[in-house]
Specification:
The complex is a heterodimer of chains A (909) and B (87). In chain A, the strands form 12 sheets. In chain A, strands 8, 9, 10, 11, 12, 13 and 26 form a 7-stranded mixed sheet that branches. A 6-stranded mixed sheet of chain A has the order 38-39-40-37-31-41. With 909 residues, chain A is of the alpha+beta class. Chain B is 10% helix and 38% strand. With 87 residues, chain B is mainly beta. The chains are: A alpha+beta (909), B mainly beta (87). Chains A and B meet through α18 and α22 of A and α1 of B.
């Protein structure tokens, strides 16, 4: 039944001139701008908003303040959104969660109905589905399907960008109620840089939903705060207080990382439910929920209502209900007394004193409530039961900030005890001065303690029977306080029920207090991940590759062309004529200074101090455990300057490695990472010299510039560092030049190579070409345990070097110990190409080694690769058997010589 | 971890701007004593209390520096470039 809106009123959040259409479970609905999903649907007569976690009981609005789990819905594919905190927008798709086939008729509801008196006991799954053991795999499928609340849409991709902002302030106030606003105004007026965070839909805390005058007072305070210069973030929520005083505040798609010199806690008190039978029926609502519907959204929440309460919170709600035209049948007040409250007398509402709720009546919606005083029973009809069970100050932030709480017997709640120096609590402690009934002893049906996890008084009873004698233990067994509300609706009541079960007095201190851990509110992973500070890296020639059909793939942080459409043709071009590859992704470091040579001597296992000027040498870098970290070339540019290249993925790591050891040793040299400043191109193939000579006066002749030479040259007018190295097996030049000229020089080289049918080549042809030369790829053919003696590079390790170097002592140990494994080449005997990762098997079929690289070489007409094998299988010519994951056995033989141009004649030509 | 670390160049910054380099170690000068070599390579003292350790300002000035930190509560006692800390 739809509820017409009440008259206009100060403090209402809706704009009656703007209607907004949205979808609820596929049906069109409308609300006003400023409505939340919950208020718009409630105004249109929707009463059931969700199905409960375990029993799939229908649940309606309870708190309307974002504190309870009852209105979790899916919005535009995002699950577990709080309908009462989310404003509607045009075209929004809102769907129910945790019910099938529909919210009205939910099959799993039968689970709860079928076991009306007992319900699903605590530990039901563990105790029930354990036998027969073989059946678990069938149970599991069904149970997994039934578990959880929302469903994550695998196709849903957030289109928003999530940002992080760092904010350092003098004062951060959490909570925008009157206490928080006043504290913020005072701090800002005193010249302190102040921010205030509030998660509500309107500032002012309880003033925002307490009628005309209160709303006016709220507006006044907000105005003063703004004038005082308080930075107000609202709606936004603080997720917790983390180490170092970090308070992450989430607002829209932004995470504000606050650090405040002083933290002011003003996050108010949360009204608590009461425990009685049927206290979860749709139509049983907290006072704050009803008052928000009335005062902020101008909805009369029902025709007739009954209020049950333990303090004046219920009186306030009853007055608001009466003012909204709801017939309030009675205020059922647990406090004894003879005189009715004057406000109720004025509103002509019966005040039943000393009565407590027994059971809310109704099947899918509340129709009335039974209340009792001793043996005296009253049955009251109502389509709304409003509960006001006192209030509790949430102490999560306080405890996370390092404070302590103690139980206050007078107020019957935990209150701040010891506070850290820079933390202040300004909101009232909450609590209530009358006894709160733990539960109704005479009711027989389910009395819910915890709405999130469907924990009843019987579950708590059972956990006590089974020996869980404190709240912290019982929590782990029953899951009470562990749901989305994080105990905000159940912590107080579960303590009370527990105390009653244990025969303790209502002093909940004796059953303990649970730890409130962050995040305080449901927080999405997108927020935590943020935007990411490691953007994709593209070479300065990237767009040329993309425009010429380069299949751009991820290679570490980089995007690189896999090939340009025909890997085989690109391989052949390098062998037969001319190829060009963009190697700008190589890491590039300049090591410069009087001790540069000595530094490199200490970093590398091989020698660099004896290098002549204008020469380049291959080197590997080892960890101190002897493992191979990276490889690359080192060119000596002057007595005191070296140009070092690293692998594409190793640039950042090598820079850190070099600078770390430099800091340890305190040597007189500087290390500069010039990776992104320098573009690099490898020109390879028999025609490389002729093509390059067209663009430069530099003498490229084999005598003037032999293999492993390095020199400065002007190429097509661009100042370049030219290195004569060829890791793809043919005559080659690696040209390093300013990346600003990236595409220009690449284009000039392509043009110069035209007459030689030059081909750009990508990563895949490069893989084949390198493999033909049996070049080990660090990280592909080696892993964290590979050391150079075993990885076919004993020649690079100079154990006779005078100086100490990183990895030396471990490698000396490996040398004494002897090799166990060997990295070897292999040739397939039947042309089949095993998968990389396939096993090399021994004589009896046992795993003995592992294939790390494999390709078919069209040039050589056979399958080739690299493998780790035990030293016993590493002799030249040893026949090995490869067991491919496909099931086939591939015969191969071991070889140590490069498959192509084994003596490097082409390289040196 | 969300404490503030003071880079000797850049000042106090959130710890996620930095890379951790581990506790300072003492590197053996030969491979003769294998036990000493392996304990340097594979064992950490992992103290509960004050620890001198390496940090790298990876999202900042890319400087390596030393910090004395209480590993129990992540209180940073002092930071300095190598050679700049007492003891």
């Amino acid at each position: 039944m739809a509820s017409p809106r009440l008259s206009e009123h100060r403090g209402e959040l809706i704009d009656r001139n703007r209607e907004i259409a949205f979808w609820w479970d596929g049906e069109p609905h409308t609300g006003y701008a400023g409505d939340t999903i919950a208020s718009a649907l409630y105004a249109e007569g929707v009463r059931v908003f969700s199905r409960s976690f375990k029993y799939h009981r229908p649940r309606g609005l309870l708190c309307c303040s974002g504190q309870c789990p009852n209105c979790l819905v899916a919005v535009d594919g995002e699950p577990s959104v709080r309908a009462c905190m989310t404003p509607i927008h045009g075209g929004m798709r809102v769907d129910h969660i945790n019910a099938w086939p529909s919210l009205e008729r939910d099959l799993l509801h039968l689970v709860g109905r079928a076991t009306p008196s007992f319900g699903m006991q605590v530990g039901f799954y563990y105790k029930t589905f354990i036998r027969p053991r073989w059946a678990w795999k069938y149970y599991e499928k069904i149970l997994r399907g039934a578990a959880g609340l929302g469903v994550i849409d695998p196709l849903h991709r957030p289109t928003e960008r999530f940002e992080k902002v760092h904010r350092h302030v003098d004062v951060l106030v959490i909570g925008g109620g009157p206490a928080g606003l006043e504290a913020a105004i005072e701090a800002a007026a005193g010249g302190r840089d102040t921010a205030l965070v509030d998660e509500g839909l309107a500032l002012g805390g309880h003033l925002a939903y307490s009628g005309h005058a209160a709303a006016g007072r709220a507006a006044e305070l907000v105005q003063q705060a703004r004038e005082a210069g308080v930075l107000i973030l609202q709606p936004a929520y603080a997720a917790g207080v983390y180490e170092g005083g970090l308070v992450p505040v989430f607002q829209g798609t932004t995470m504000h990382r606050f650090r405040a010199a002083e933290l002011v806690l003003a996050n108010g008190a949360i009204e608590q439910p009461l425990v009685f039978e049927g206290n979860d029926l749709p139509g049983v609502m907290l006072g704050v929920g009803a008052r928000r519907l009335i005062n902020q959204f101008r909805i009369a929440p029902a025709e007739e209502a009954v209020v049950v309460c333990v303090d004046d919170g219920g009186i306030d709600a009853a007055v608001d209900l009466a003012n909204a035209g709801v017939a309030v049948r009675a205020v059922v007040d647990t406090r004894d007394g003879t005189e009715p409250d004057q406000r109720l007398v004025l509103a002509d509402i019966e005040h039943l004193r000393g009565f407590a709720p027994v059971r809310a009546r109704g099947r899918d919606a509340v129709t009335g409530i039974d209340v009792a005083r001793g043996s005296e029973r009253r049955r009251l009809a109502a389509d709304l039961v409003v509960m006001s069970g006192g209030s509790v100050m949430p102490h999560g932030f306080l405890v996370q900030a390092g404070g302590k709480v103690r139980y206050d017997r007078e107020l019957r709640v935990y209150v701040p005890d010891r506070l850290p120096e820079n933390v202040r609590v300004v909101s009232p402690a909450g609590g209530t001065t009358s006894d709160v009934p733990a539960k109704c002893a005479s009711a027989s049906g389910k009395q819910f303690v915890c709405y999130c996890e469907d924990v009843t008084t019987k579950d708590v009873h059972q956990s006590v029977q089974e020996g869980f004698g404190s709240l912290e233990l019982s929590k782990r067994y029953t899951t009470v306080t562990m749901g989305p509300c994080q105990g905000r609706m159940c912590h107080r009541n579960s303590g009370l029920v527990m105390a009653a079960e244990l025969g303790l007095d209502a002093d909940a201190q004796q059953v303990g207090v649970t730890t409130g851990r962050p995040p305080h509110n449901p927080t999405s992973f997108s927020h935590l991940a943020g935007r990411g500070y490691e953007p994709v890296k593209r070479s300065s020639i990237h767009h040329w590759h993309a425009a010429r059909g380069g299949k751009m793939l991820w290679a570490g942080d980089w995007k690189r062309p896999y090939d340009y459409g025909d890997a085989d043709a690109e391989t052949a071009a390098v062998h037969e004529s001319l190829g060009l590859i963009d190697v700008s992704t190589l890491g590039k470091l300049i090591v410069r200074g009087p001790q540069a040579a000595e530094f490199l001597e200490r970093i590398y296992p091989n020698r660099f101090g004896d290098m002549k000027l204008a020469r380049v040498r291959y080197g590997i870098v080892c960890g101190d455990d002897g493992s191979i970290l990276d490889d690359g070339t080192v060119a000596r540019l002057s007595e005191t300057e070296y140009y070092v290249t690293t692998t594409s993925s190793g640039a950042g790591g090598m820079e850190q490695w070099f600078t770390w050891w430099n800091a340890v040793w305190g040597m007189d040299c500087q290390i500069v990472n010039v990776t992104s400043a320098i573009a690099a191109v490898n020109v390879a193939g028999p025609a490389a010299r002729t093509a390059l000579a067209k663009l430069t006066d530099f003498d490229l002749g084999n005598d003037a510039f032999p293999y492993l030479g390095a020199g400065h040259a002007q190429i097509a007018g661009v100042p370049c560092l030219l290195l004569r190295i060829g890791f793809v097996g043919e005559l080659g030049y690696e040209i390093h030049y300013p990346s600003a000229a990236g595409e220009y020089l690449w284009g000039a080289l392509m043009q110069a190579g035209e007459e030689f049918s030059v081909q750009p080549f990508g990563l895949e042809p490069q893989r084949v070409l390198r493999l033909e030369k049996m070049h080990v790829i660090i990280g592909q053919d080696t892993n964290a345990e590979s050391q150079p003696l075993e990885a076919a590079m004993p020649w690079i390790v100079k154990l006779d070097k005078e100086s100490d170097w990183i990895g030396r002592y471990s490698i000396e140990f490996f040398k004494r110990r002897g090799d166990r494994l060997a990295l070897v080449g292999w040739e397939g005997r039947n042309g089949a190409v095993p998968k990389e990762g396939a096993q090399v098997i021994g004589a009896t079929g046992e795993p003995a080694g592992r294939i790390t690289s494999s390709r078919f070489s069209h040039r050589l007409g056979k399958s080739i690769g690299i493998a780790w094998v035990p030293v016993g299988m590493a002799e030249e010519g040893t026949a090995i058997t490869i067991s491919d994951p496909s099931g086939s056995r591939i015969p191969a033989s071991v070889t140590h010589r490069p498959f192509y141009d084994p003596d490097g004649e082409k390289l040196r030509s | 971890m969300s404490f503030i670390l003071t880079c000797p160049n850049c000042g106090g910054r959130p710890v996620d701007e930095f890379s951790y380099g581990g506790e300072i170690t003492s590197r053996p000068r030969s491979s003769e004593d294998e036990r000493a070599l392996f304990s340097y390579l594979y064992f950490k003292r992992n103290v509960a209390g004050d620890q001198r350790e390496w940090w790298f300002h990876s999202s900042g000035c890319r400087e390596w520096f030393l910090a004395d930190r209480d590993t129990r509560d992540n209180r940073v006692i002092a930071t300095a470039l190598p050679g700049g800390l007492d003891g």
